[in-house]
Amino acid sequence: MRRPRPGVNEILSSYLLRVTGANGYANYKVVSEYVDIQSDLHKFNYLSKDITSLERLSAATGVMESRLWEMVFPVIDDRSVRAYGATLEYQWLEREKLKVCPHCLAETGYYHQHWALWLYTSCHIHKWLLVDTCPQCQSGWR
Fold it and tell me: Terminus-to-terminus CA distance in the chain, angstroms?
């Protein structure tokens, strides 16, 4: 298995997609089933340590399990997650539309964890508003 390294502030679903692509698979479910995590892609970002193990993903990718847990928002209860040292209710997380800084995406090739925060609306590096559609084709991010 090809093992790309996780990016700085990369969210787990993005990493899973990069592992999928690096290994020539058309669908992330091939990798998720291999590592025994059956979930919709966006749900990979909200996991509970009580019911989910990232041990097999760690073994398959060579990435320490503790590093993989840094790439998710751990679920606290049915209404909230842990994010950046604080407890946030789900309403503060953007789960409907992906929004990105097109400059960061072009530079790094992955989705950054802080883009999932509802109140995070502009890039602190490029001073650019986050967008939820491709600037070239106007289709939504997937």
Answer: 24
